[in-house]
Amino acid sequence: METTAKTASELVRSTPPSPLQVAFRELELYDVGNVTRVEEVFSPDFIDHTPLNPEEPGIVGMRALVENVCAGFTNIVHRVLFYRELPDGLVLIHWEMTATHTGEFLGVPATGKPVALKGIDIFRIVDGKVAELYHVEEMLKLAQQLGAQLG
Question: Among the record's GO biological process terms, what is one (predicted)?
């Protein structure tokens, strides 16, 4: 199956252990807000090729990102729109996140507004953990929904 509209949590529960399930678990971290599980999902030498904050690389930066997203938003749900497991532990996922902006995020105070944005992640899974990640999100769309002043 490649096209879906199930939540990350539904896919984690319904997918047998595989690189694909590990990738779904990464999205689920945000949905359940469990920062303590970051070490279960990411390898200690994890490489984020497109970090939001390059000053905090690797697993430290990913833990900070999950914390910041979960502090800024509630009711986070990732719906998987498309996925494909590829050779060599690669997984491609196109997702949509919906949430409510209930805390400060990227310097914008809570607005109470619902938000929605899409993204694409390419994971490399090694030994059951995320070793590398390339990702693109609609950050401009998110900033516009929050009313952030750009520039």
Answer: polyketide metabolic process
